[in-house]
């Protein structure tokens, strides 16, 4: 959507055999607040790292203000 500040589409990441984040998708509109909740080891930090460009997703895409995060790490 045009007013989505953050879009996560099928984000997936694994460490060796361990799937840390498995195809998560969500949108956060401009001005909206999002919280990540879950037990230890649920993939919260890995998901945030993909959204901020610290990790490149193994599958899926994260966009921030319309920019592909993995391709624009220097602008995030």
From TrEMBL:
<protein>
    <recommendedName>
        <fullName>ABC transporter domain-containing protein</fullName>
    </recommendedName>
</protein>
<dbReference type="Pfam" id="PF00005">
    <property type="entry name" value="ABC_tran"/>
</dbReference>
<dbReference type="InterPro" id="IPR027417">
    <property type="entry name" value="P-loop_NTPase"/>
</dbReference>
<dbReference type="InterPro" id="IPR050763">
    <property type="entry name" value="ABC_transporter_ATP-binding"/>
</dbReference>
<dbReference type="InterPro" id="IPR003439">
    <property type="entry name" value="ABC_transporter-like_ATP-bd"/>
</dbReference>
<keyword id="KW-0547">Nucleotide-binding</keyword>
<keyword id="KW-0813">Transport</keyword>
<dbReference type="GO" id="GO:0016887">
    <property type="term" value="F:ATP hydrolysis activity"/>
</dbReference>
<feature type="domain" description="ABC transporter">
    <location>
        <begin position="22"/>
        <end position="71"/>
    </location>
</feature>
<dbReference type="GO" id="GO:0005524">
    <property type="term" value="F:ATP binding"/>
</dbReference>
<keyword id="KW-0067">ATP-binding</keyword>
